[in-house]
Amino acid sequence: MERWTLTVIDGSEQGLEKPLNEEVILGRSLDNDLVLSHSAVSRRHARIFAVGFVIYVEDLESTHGTRVNGETCSKRALNNNDIITVGPVSMKIACEQAAPTPGATNVIYVQPTGAPSIHEISVRDIEKSVADHDISARLEAVLQIGLTLQGEREIGPLLQRIGKTLIDTLAVERCGIFLGEDVNPQLVMAAKGIENPDKLPFSKSLLHRAISDGEALVTADAGKDPRVRSESLVAGAIRSAMVAPMWGREHVIGAVVVENRDRTNAFDSEDLRLLVVLANL
Predict the structure, then answer these.
(1) Over the stretch 16-31, which tens digit does the pLDDT of each residue have?
(2) What is the DSSP letter of 114?
(3) At 143, which helix (H) or strand (E)?
(4) CA pair distance 262, 281, nearest whole angstrom
(5) How much is the CA Rg of the chain, to the nearest whole Å?
(6) What's the whole-model pTM score?
(7) Domains of the chain
(8) What angle do CA 142, 279, 116 make, to 5 degrees?
């Protein structure tokens, strides 16, 4: 998972670091999340916040403005190593890619107001993949489903195209697409060689976290992960799994679940990013 940090690089607070785990308000007032004592910094100068996977800085109508890499802005998406300047004080935003813990579940929270869209996060986030990921295949998957959305008017063929693209692109052995709060999948698809893919149920615990809690998650070892362990995962000998909610305008309207019985660590956080994008095109 990614860890974003803001570090003051000049002024009296030089060296001060602030983890960006939640919204951070910058300014001179002592009740801000990050206090910058320079007189040219406004009392509430700017805020840094996340929408989906994208980090933004927004000026709060400050007197001397906010700049990113020297350019004045009112609101702007941030990239790794960008320099943010409020008044005369500069800060650097940095992203560290943490290695996944074996057997742990990486969770990405996707809020209704920040439901991902192809315009906000697709290319930028997929390009953050580490070198051993096939970027072209991922972008091709996004393109294929985008074209599917334009060409298909009936829900059945559309879901089949989405399921096939996931199986062809990721290490997916079985894929289930759920609509509404129904625990029975609208569609089940499987890779070649997988017999009776619709015989075993999908994990209700995974579905609950996506449909009820709006979470997207990946588990590297489903059999040993207490947060997602369920009878269906054990019965199906599922080793790796991912789930992503499908967002409507304000509410979750379904979920996509993918599984792999062949090996643990079949999916990682970058695969989860792609699943979230594809589930919400």
Answers:
(1) 999 988 899 999 999 9
(2) G
(3) helix 135-151
(4) 29
(5) 21
(6) 0.52
(7) 3-96 (2.60.200.20), 104-279 (3.30.450.40)
(8) 85
